[in-house]
Task: inverse folding
């Protein structure tokens, strides 16, 4: 296979833009934030990040933002993921393995339902700035 | 220590972003059984005392967690490198940036596995911070280079899921190329 160049990449991006649908636009203010500190990395947060990318892309939600941050203080429950959906309170999820990451996309983002058993509510008290 | 070579690279590059760099250069080179990674940044740098403390797992600068006393990233990378017959070096000066270089002997039974290089480079390119990240990857004599600014020019917002998926496609294709792997399914760039 030939190398994929930056010019190819630009064309792929334009093709993707052209097929954007209205449903996609509805999710443009959704943010998913993955804790990528040493504790997250040790708990395979990179896999979680990767699954989120694939699952959102597959669901046609290509304009959801996936950001990275440091440790949210919940090192005992990594990987941690914060989900910000307009109209819902921001939620920090813990122990987000690949299956839970898929549920976050298909349940929380798409259907606006919390993913039970993984809700940690907010970052640890000692790291929140007063 | 970190589970994979990719995890070790992530730690060091994240540190470079955290140092407020404007320019980060990552050389990630495998030649034969030797992996050599160098991360150079032009961030704030460290004095001799801080440089020494940075390798202590029970020290942190306190910027992220005022009440916690661990900082495991660098010490883990040093441990992983030294445990598999590799090497580790940290050079830094205030105002002049930091260079971290580590090597693994991949023939050593204690060398960590590679991990997912394409996914790792995708994440690092989207890591928050103003720095332009320049990456050079090599597997023996096959190589490619790319900068974050070039990817941003081609793709726009690097933090969007759709863009991240395209970036991963870019890195997967280039990784397959330098590893001489045949990828199934053609990519139609239209």
Result:
């Amino acid at each position: 296979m030939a190398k994929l160049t930056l010019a190819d990449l630009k064309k792929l991006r334009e093709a993707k833009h052209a097929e954007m649908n209205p449903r996609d636009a509805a999710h443009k203010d959704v943010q998913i934030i993955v804790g990528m500190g040493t504790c997250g990395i040790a708990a395979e947060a990179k896999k979680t990040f990767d699954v989120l990318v694939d699952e959102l892309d597959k669901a046609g939600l290509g304009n959801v933002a996936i950001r990275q941050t440091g440790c949210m203080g919940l090192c005992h429950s990594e990987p941690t993921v914060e989900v910000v959906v307009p109209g819902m309170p921001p939620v920090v999820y813990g122990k987000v393995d690949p299956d839970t990451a898929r549920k976050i996309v298909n349940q929380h983002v798409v259907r606006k339902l919390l993913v039970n058993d993984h809700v940690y509510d907010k970052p640890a008290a000692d790291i929140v700035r007063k | 220590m970190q589970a994979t070579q990719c995890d070790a690279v992530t730690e060091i590059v994240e540190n470079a972003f955290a140092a407020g760099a404007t320019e980060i250069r990552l050389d990630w080179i495998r030649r034969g059984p030797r992996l050599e990674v160098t991360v150079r940044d032009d961030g704030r740098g460290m004095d001799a005392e801080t440089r020494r403390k940075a390798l202590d797992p029970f020290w942190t600068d306190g910027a992220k967690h005022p009440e916690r006393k661990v900082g495991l990233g660098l010490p883990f990378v040093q441990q992983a490198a030294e445990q598999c017959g590799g090497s580790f070096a940290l050079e830094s000066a205030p105002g002049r940036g930091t260079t971290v270089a580590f090597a693994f002997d991949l023939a050593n039974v204690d060398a960590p596995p590679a991990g997912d290089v394409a996914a790792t480079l995708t994440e690092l390119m989207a890591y928050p911070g103003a720095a332009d990240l320049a990456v050079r990857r090599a597997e023996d004599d096959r190589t490619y280079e790319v900068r974050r600014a070039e990817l941003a020019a081609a793709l726009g917002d690097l933090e969007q899921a759709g863009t991240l998926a395209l970036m991963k496609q870019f890195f997967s294709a280039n990784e397959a190329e330098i590893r001489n792997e045949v990828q199934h399914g053609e990519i139609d760039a239209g």
User: Anything to note?
Assistant: The mean pLDDT of chain A is 89. Chain A has one domain: 24-127. Chain A touches chain B at residues 1-4, 6-13, 15-16, 36-38, 41-42, 44, 46-47, 49-50, 52-54, 56-57, 61-71, 73, 126-127 (CB under 8 Å). The helical segments of chain A are 6-18, 22-25, 38-42, 45-58, 98-111.
